Amino acid sequence: MGRGKRVRYYDYDWIKVIATLGVFLYHCSMFFNPFPWHVKNNEVDTNGILVFSLFLGVWLMPLFFAISGISVTYSLNNRSTSNFIKERLVRLGVPLLFGMFILSPPQVYIERVTNYQFSGSFINFIPHYFDGLYLDIGGRGNFAFSGLHLWYLLVLLVYSIISVPLFKTIARRKFRKSLFVLLPFLLFLSGVIETMGIGGWDIIFYFMTFIFGYYFLSSPEFKPALVSSFKWILPIALSTSVIYIVWFMIAFPKENSIQDIIFYAVKTVNCWSWILVIFYLGNKYLTFSNNFLKYTSEASMPFYVLHQPIIVAVGYFIYELSWPIAIKAFVLITTSFILIMLLYHFVIRNVELLRLLFGLKG
Q1: Rounded Cα–Cα distance for residues 141 and 132 (Å)
Q2: Is the pLDDT of residue 140 over 50?
Q3: Which of 192-201, 244-253, 295-304 is the least confident region?
Q4: Residue 2's pLDDT is what?
Q5: Which pLDDT score, from 0 to 100, does residue 4 have?
Q6: How many domains would you assign to the chain?
Q7: Which of 26, 316, 45 lies closest to 149, judged by CA?
Q8: Of 20, 8, 7, which is closest to residue 296 (Cα–Cα)?
């Protein structure tokens, strides 16, 4: 691949910003839904909020890895391998370490206190933060080596480094319409390899979407093929969402059963089809730039790094209150969002050291 001036696809920037907001809302929903999380409301919701969580949870993180694969295309096209790796270590590794040692301890402390696994002040908890590895919510270990929600940065950093030799030696391929069927089939087959599940999928699944982003979704032929195929992609996305959510809520299949295999197939097709729907909508409506996009595009990384610690902290102050769920949801979302944006606008983006810690360019 020769180097040249990068063509800026603003729809991908918009998708990244909107997906970051989606992660924020998803983690707010985790405070209320029945799934384990770092702090839970004293009343859970098994209806609307659960449906929202199920809908977003299928495709949100795979979308991030697909976008990341696309961005690597342009990063490698304009950088040497050594500069690319250096840039990844700084932009991903530094926020990861900051989250691991500064942002994660308060979250683990709140989880331990609200689950009656520790009693005492946060100061008293700090030495115990290094007692064992934090492997899952409700586990015994405390040291969050993945930075909790920043596992995405850790996994993306590993993917970026180990993939460079592959990306440098094998040229990107044209996107053909047959890949709309072939790629989800390959994603389904990746489910046979079970390594470590996180965020609803195995890390091999995320690696596949990352690879697809680089090799196929960044191809000039991808968008025209997507436009001509959208008429059947949207119905598939909508129908598989209904099947997946209803099946999950009514009769979750038994592990390793035939129903479980079919359920996973539905989930895979649903994930892939919504990624395509989002790319189609972005290409149709979001191919422009303005000052709002420039501001939010830069803010998206600090927002992602900071959002969960803020949500967990606000949740900790309201989880025992007897307010209705709707009131708590409003308070949690608005208070957390305002705090994050105030910290970013007035502090993080104006202090050189904080820009580095939150993954911003100097």
Answers
A1: 4
A2: yes
A3: 192-201
A4: 42
A5: 44
A6: 1
A7: 26
A8: 20
**Is 314 a domain residue?**
no
Distance, CA of 346 to chain centre: 26
Average pLDDT for the chain:
95
User: Is 163 inside a domain boundary?
Assistant: yes
> How far apart, in whole angstroms, are the C-alpha atoms of residue 153 and residue 92?
6
> Beta strands of the chain (E only): which ranges?
197-198, 201-202
DSSP 146-205: T-GGGHHHHHHHHHHHHHHHHHHHS------TTHHHHHHHHHHHHTTS-S-EETTEEHHH
355 found inside a domain: no
Which pTM value belongs to this model?
0.95
Strand partners, 133: 143
For 49, the domain range is 10-24+43-286
Q: What is the pLDDT of residue 7?
A: 63
By the 10 Å C-beta count (0-12 exposed, 13-18 middle, 19+ buried), 137 is classed as middle
Q: Which of 4, 2, 32 lies closest to 311, judged by CA?
A: 32
Q: For residue 330, list its beta bridge partners.
A: none
The DSSP result for 92-149, as a single string, is IIHHHHHIIIIIHHHHHHHHHHHTTS--S-HHHHGGGGGSSB--STT-S--B-TT-GG
Which of 71-80, 146-155, 197-206, 329-338 is the least confident region?
71-80
- The pLDDT value recorded for residue 1 is 39
